[in-house]
Amino acid sequence: MDNHGMATGASLAQSLMKAAGLLESDAPAALRLARTILKTAPGHPHARMIEGQALRRTGDLGAALALLAGLARDQPRVPAVWWELAQVASEAGDCQQAANALIHLTRQQPAVADGWFLLGRELRRLGREEEAWRADLSGVHASSRDPDLLKAAVEMNEGRMDEAEALLSARLHRKPDDPPAIRLLGEIYWRRGDISDALTLVEQAVDLAPGFDMARDFLVRLLLQSGKLPEAMRHADILSHSPVGNPGHALLRASVLVRLGDQQQASDIYRRLLDQQPAQPQIWQNLGHALKTLGKQADAVHAYRQAVHYQPTMGEAWWSLANLKTVRLDSADIATMEQALTSLTANAPDRQEDIFHLHFSLGKALEDARDYAASFRHYDLGNRLRRAMVRHDADVFSAEVRATAACFTAPFIASMGDGGCPAPDPIFIVGLPRAGSTLIEQILASHSQVEGTMELPDMMMIASRLQARVDDGEFADFAAIIASLTPADRLRLGEEYLERTRIHRHSDRPRFVDKMPNNWQHVGLIRLILPNAKIVDARRHPLSCCFSGWKQHFARGQTFSYDLADIGRYYSDYAALMAAYDAAAPGAVHRIFYEAMVSDTEREVRRLLDYLGLPFEPACLEFYKNDRAVRTASSEQVRQPIFTQGMDQWRHYDPWLMPLRQALGGLVSTYPGRERDDPI
After folding, report:
1. Contacts of 88 (CB under 8 A, 6+ apart)
2. DSSP 629
3. pLDDT tens digits, residue range 153-162?
4. Global model pTM greater than 0.85
5. Options 3.30.499.10, 3.30.70.1530, 2.30.180.10, 1.25.40.10; which CATH number does 3-143 get?
């Protein structure tokens, strides 16, 4: 091609297109062609751009930077020039020039998210943290209007997860470092129940854009679901410093503090938010929960009352009042709750949680008023609503319990030999909810060598992880994976439990209590991985325990408790497994009958301490003077001397308890120390 031909418009366009096409495949050739073009068309902006791009790709960053900086001065209104200048400046380590270029770019194209995210990275390298944070937030805002992301979000929200994933995967193939797309993909995995992969993706999004508040908020919630409390706290602390004043960040941080057992800090956050805006029933309720746990009952009652003042239909706040056990809801409260229930049923039937909470609350209020028929009707309605919202298959659960009993036989235990972590720190209190475990924990936490914590989920998480390997087909059944555990495996799992629970230990006391009642299902596993841990079985009269559990609405976890037959079968399964373990490993588990603890507290406390190898201390008999935080439904009862009022409440409801009696079978008549006037 002669020079004259090169200069013609068509030929020039073709040459420029050819040079641009060579950039990725043969940058030196692209550079030579761009310079040839510039000889015949000196100063041509597009040719200069290609020359700069080629210099960058051949590694001559200094020349590329000088050329593109000059081009940006000459062509300040061309966004592509600022983008290229930013790229080469970033690669050359000139963060200041990269940031300046991106500031120009984002002013011209504020709706393009990539520029904002790159600006955030460059500002962060310069130590300009708040500006970087705001740049990330601007990138997120720009992404909210992206048609591809909007389409993927619609597919996800309408339940078409595969279609949404395909859209995002195609996008990430083109743009692998796109924080909003990565976060959205993480949400798809979370909705499918794959928390592990969801965590990995959302962490990646936050790493790419640390100022992506919505992604970090989601990450905190995923970490809470995974029981990774220290990590959740770290990210909640970061989020609380966002330049965008969002009260939700403070509330999320308070939620993490509650999970960590720091009720005081959480209540301080709630009070600050209420000082700014008092008409917030949800925050009043949260404050009530924290104050109740701290033992500040009068303040908790005031907080709950404020919640229902601002929102009379707030069922959980009413239940929180009723659930204090030492508070009686009067006739005016009953009238207000009945009016709220009528209003919700007529106008907002979808607010099922408020409705069933109101039924439970009315059940308790009418029980206190001795109107047992009306009370049972509300308890029954509340339980029926709640049962429809949870998944519990009593047949499947019973089969799992039988399989566990068949696994942990005396020969099997002997065949496993020594192993596990030898630390004697944990004291597990197991059994059914409402069986007296909180009382036992409070007694032990009053001993100078024992720290009370809370219901810790960590052993259940370890067991669930092992079961997941069975579900994935790696092992034939749970017994097979348990049998496969080597001494080193058992040591590692025991050490993992201690490490996971360390966050809940705030003193130098050598022993600590884990009172997760459902751990009765894992007594065999506990003994294998923590052979020197102690296990205390808190047991209560089956009718008394099961009825108390049935009329108690639990915030989470106790899916068996909303049907009289289900809870009776659950108690039967529990009693059978504990009996099997007693036979397989006599003396490994120490059993406390609630009725015996009530009738002769000192004798039972001395027996318990002997089992634990601890000296008797009088403070254990004055447990009600211990002001430690208590989160369970019995929090107020253990702040006073032995509580006996609830032992025979089930008798008032006996005409309606036949499904429970049938499920319990002979356990009522054979219960050790059953009440003398039990009609059975």
Report:
1. 52, 56, 61, 64, 65, 68
2. -
3. 999 999 999 9
4. no
5. 1.25.40.10
